[in-house]
Fold:
Amino acid sequence: MAVTVTKLLKPLIPASVLSRCSNPASLLFNHKPSFRSSAAAKMATTSTSEADIKPTPSKVKIIDSHLHVWASPEEAADKFPYFPGQEPTLPGHVDFLLQCMEEAGVDGALIVQPINHKFDHSLVTSVLKKYPSKFVGCCLANPAEDGIGIKQLEQLILKDGFRAVRFNPYLWPSGQQMTNEVGKAMFSKAGELGVPVGFMCMKGLNLHISEIEELCTEFPSTTVLLDHLAFCKPPSNDEESLAFSNLLKLSRFPQVYVKFSALFRVSRMPFPYQDLSSPLSQVVSSFGANRVMWGSDFPYVVPECGYKGGREAASLIANEVPLSPSELEWIMGGTIMQLFQD
Structure:
């Protein structure tokens, strides 16, 4: 299911052009792209040489694959209340985000529903409707045992225009896994609707790898996004080495994409997080740059290194690998734009 929006999200790149281009990211230089969330929008395959497309570097689109917004205290008091006990400690209102994006030269973003509003998507929905040329939205799956989350997911996608859904395993009922009846129904529904499922493995990939593998195997048409390198830090012990190995092995599922996001969360070093150069190199070698995407994790990134610093860190790490200019284009915007192309 695709939802047509304007400007940045309006489909202007013909499928015939994409099918002949070895680097669809370079098409962003001369087109205003749109996003499509479909398992069919996979890696580009073709024979056309990059030399056939003459880009203008100043027009490269930079797209943030992972950030959050929430209400200001005034908005929360008025009509977008916080979920009790989840009041934010950082400013994360959309005006602040837009200011940060402008300063950093970031053109668009995927907004992930924050836990601060839990299953009340009204604030993010209002932002998506106000800025359709800037943002697409990722809703939060409700895994309640009564299955109400399945209908909620349909409404959020079909009525409110969200383009992805996040599975937070720690919201599942106690003792339940994401592979339970409700989880499989939502994962299957996401594939049917053409929206990716993002996994937040905050307590470690090893805890959830079997669930992710089972879902990917049973529902190969559902695209998967692994948030924040699946929370894999540069390995320093056997358990961490196993987790990172499990991450790389997920590349065997062509529907799986990796967010190179929240670098401050997965690095053991201060800005610019250069210990992530080896993990990035291995992830790109396993998945390909066109299945990897940069994300900031705004607003949490702001007190760590600043929003602009979060963007700059990704480029500095890529230079350490080193990645080619075209690989960096994929990671900084090309991958997510191809994934959500209409």
Summary: The first strand starts at residue 63 and ends at 67. The beta strands are 63-67, 108-112, 135-140, 164-167, 197-199, 224-226, 256-261, 292-295.
